Design the sequence.
C-alpha cells in the first residue's frame, strides 16, 4: 500500500516518489560517504522544552548529484558557499542536499540494509522518528513527559558518540595538533 499519509514512512515509496533498488543502493552509498545523519534540537521554546528532529544531509561539489537526490528522494539543496568562509581559498563551489523528519526516516529505513558504515547511526535516527510518532505532542513541548524527553536526549547523545572523531568514540581534542618528532 502506498504511503498515503505523510507519517507513513516504512514503505518503499513516499509522496509520489518511488526510487528503484539501484537508487536506494546509490543513496546508501552517498549517505555513507558524503552524508550526515543528525538529531537536531529545535530552536524554539525554552531550553528544557525544546524538541528534537531527524535530519540527513549529503554534501558534494557537483550540482548534478544534488539534482538527482532531489528528483529521486525529494528534499532540497542549496549552495553551501559563503563569501566569508571560502574567501581566498581555491575550493570548488559546494552544495548541501538535505531533508528531515518523515522523509529522512523513509530514506534511512529503505537504505538500512545497504549501509556499510552508518547503519548504527541510521538505526538511532529511525528510533528517534518512531519515538516522535509514538509520543506526538503537536508542538506543545512543555507537555512532553520528562522520560520521553530524556529518551530523546539519550538517542542524540548515542548518535554523537558514534559520530565522534577519534579512537573508540573518544573525541579528538579541539585546537592545534601537536607534532611528534
Sequence:
Amino acid at each position: 500500500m502506498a504511503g498515503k499519509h505523510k507519517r507513513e514512512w516504512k514503505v518503499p515509496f513516499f509522496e509520489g516518489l518511488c526510487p528503484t533498488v539501484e537508487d536506494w543502493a546509490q543513496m546508501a552509498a552517498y549517505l555513507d560517504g558524503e552524508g550526515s545523519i543528525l538529531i537536531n534540537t529545535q530552536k524554539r521554546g525554552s531550553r528544557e522544552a525544546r524538541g528534537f528532529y531527524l535530519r540527513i544531509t549529503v554534501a558534494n561539489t557537483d550540482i548534478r548529484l544534488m539534482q538527482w537526490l532531489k528528483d529521486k528522494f525529494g528534499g532540497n539543496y542549496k549552495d553551501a558557499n559563503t563569501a566569508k568562509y571560502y574567501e581566498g581559498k581555491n575550493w570548488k563551489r559546494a552544495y548541501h542536499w538535505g531533508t528531515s523528519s518523515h522523509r529522512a526516516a523513509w530514506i534511512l529505513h529503505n537504505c538500512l540494509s545497504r549501509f556499510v558504515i552508518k547503519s548504527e547511526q541510521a538505526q538511532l535516527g529511525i528510533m528517534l522518528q518512531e519515538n516522535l510518532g509514538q509520543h506526538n505532542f503537536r508542538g506543545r513541548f512543555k507537555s512532553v513527559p520528562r522520560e520521553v524527553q530524556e529518551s530523546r536526549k539519550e538517542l542524540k547523545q548515542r548518535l554523537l558518540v558514534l559520530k565522534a572523531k577519534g579512537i573508540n568514540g573518544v573525541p579528538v581534542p579541539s585546537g592545534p595538533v601537536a607534532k611528534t618528532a
Q: What stands out?
A: The chain has a mean pLDDT of 83. The beta strands are 35-41, 52-60, 76-79, 95-100. The domain at 21-163 is CATH 3.10.28.10 (Endonuclease I-creI).
